[in-house]
Amino acid sequence: MGTKLIIDTDPGVDDAFALALATRSEDVDLLGVTTVFGNVPLSHTTANARRLLQLFGREDVPVAAGAERPLVYDNAKPAGFVHGQDGLSGHAGTLPEAKRALDERGAVRLLVDLLEAADEPVTIAPIGPLTNIALLLAAHPQIREKIGRIVIMGGGVTKGNSTTAAEFNIWSDPEAARRVLVDGDIPTVLVPLDITHQCSVDTTWLGKLAASGPLGAALEALTPTYVEHYTPILGFPGMVMHDAVAVAEAIRPGILDTESYPVDVECGFGPARGATLVDRRRLRSTDPQTVPGRTIDVALTTDVDAFRGFVLDRIVGGL
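Structure (tokenized):
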């Protein structure tokens, strides 16, 4: 099979599209899903992930619950006003009940077990706060050898959304984000707001999804609150598929154009808390002003029309 993938998620409307993309792609071996607090509290994100997998006919995929709060400072706030209080525009209850029981091992243990059992490198796509991934890397450093890439939806080079400076996933747990982005050594791709906003879709695109059949209609039905939130931001009726953009890169490396930069995360308590500091100065390594540490790949551009077609074709083609 193709890409071996684990998704760490906090569903969330855009997470629902990301899960749809992964589960409906025949070249993806989705090993497991772990959940984290974020868009809504952990109890909701976990229930949503399980119901979505049931909707997509993937009860074979184990789901384990992870962190219910940030690593250090418990000051993150859910985004129910964006996604609806249940995370899915108030329609979570319309999804089928999950038949598979929640995996009792918990997120970090499930991650370790899946990685240890894999016979080839695994891609991890964290599309919520990075708390579970930070815990994994801190408690099980030897597991790094089994991870091929980490493709993260988070951060912003030129903008934030939770604050002027900070994107929601990074802002929700800056200390965890810094542990993964700055202190890690696994090949990493950061998919920030700058590229996810370029890949926004309008209601015509969503209409094509709804017209594709019952599952497409069920997925589109989860979007009203989300579309209402994003319409004034985008300037047209539509939405931003943040997490699906990262998952697309996870399953088709190179669909996004990346450049390698030093990245840091602001963990102070001023107005820039949670900001991702992407150093685009192109300094020489000998320059005294250069930022020490590693570089990571940051996605900044793509063929937007081709990308939208890819996501729609993958989801509809599997329905």
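The domain at 3-317 is CATH 3.90.245.10 (Inosine-uridine Nucleoside N-ribohydrolase; Chain A). The mean pLDDT is 95.
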